[in-house]
Amino acid sequence: MIDPAEAARIEAALDEAQTKTRAPLVCVLARASVSRDAEFLLGACILALTTPLPLLLFTAMSAQRIYVAQLLVAILAAVLGAVPWVRRALVPARAVRAACHRAALAQFVLRGLDRSENGVLVYVSLAERYVRIVPADEAAAAVPHEHWQAFVDEALGPLAAGAIETALTGLAARCAARLAGPFPPTGPGEPPSRQRFHTV
């Protein structure tokens, strides 16, 4: 996904951003949020199981040929189901977005930001090219949704170009700059001992 040097630079950028605000910032980079392996395997099995019926009803094929046809359908469906662009075409965009949204909310809770009133999670899923900023209650009240969406829109270009580090460090800097007003740092800011960047 990314090499250790990139991860260290992203972590350092998050630490630097954290010095500008007391609102906790955490970034999670996921390889993918949607795993449909079971659904595609089940679909291939159902397709293979239904293949013999029309062949028995409408052809005079032998049992051996029907069995071979059934095997070929199962193999072809399984292979096609493993191709990323075929999966993207078969899974509705709304279902993908819903799954990514659920994954972002799960990470928000897993990283303990639900216990923070002003924490912010930056969630990026590479396979789906999905970016979401999940603010805690006070951060959501202090910063309009349109601002978070603008930050997301700015990150999508570098992300699509494969510049993951640029996208994440830019998001960290923009979020911290926007949170600095309503949640200024108290003293030197939150210590950098807490890990702010996670890959899943």
The biggest beta sheet reads: 4 strands, mixed
Q: Count up the domains.
A: 2
Q: Tally the helices.
A: 9
- Strands of the biggest beta sheet: in what spatial order? 3-2-1-4
Helix content: 55-70%
List the helices and strands in order. Answer: HEHHHHHEEHHHE
Radius of gyration: 23 Å
- Kindly estimate the percentage of residues that lie in beta strands according to DSSP: 5-15%
N→C terminal distance:
10 Å
By CATH reckoning, the class of the largest domain would read Alpha Beta
**Which second-level CATH architecture of the largest domain applies?**
Roll
What does this molecule look like?
This protein has 200 residues and is α/β, with parallel strands linked by helices. The protein folds into 2 domains: 4-34 and 92-199, Diaminopimelate Epimerase, Chain A, domain 1 (Roll); 37-90, no CATH class. The chain has 9 helices and 4 strands; from the N terminus they run H-E-H-H-H-H-H-E-E-H-H-H-E. The protein has helices spanning 4-18, 37-50, 52-58, 63-82, 84-90, 93-110, 137-142, 145-160, 164-180; strands at 25-30, 120-125, 130-135, 197-199. Strands 3-2-1-4 form a 4-stranded mixed β-sheet, with helices on both faces. A hairpin with a 4-residue loop joins strand 2 and strand 3 (130-135). Helix 1 (4-18) packs parallel to helix 9, helix 2 packs antiparallel against helix 4 (63-82) and helix 8 runs antiparallel to helix 9 (164-180). It is elongated and about 80 Å long. It starts with a helix and ends with a strand. The model is unreliable at 188-193 (pLDDT under 50).
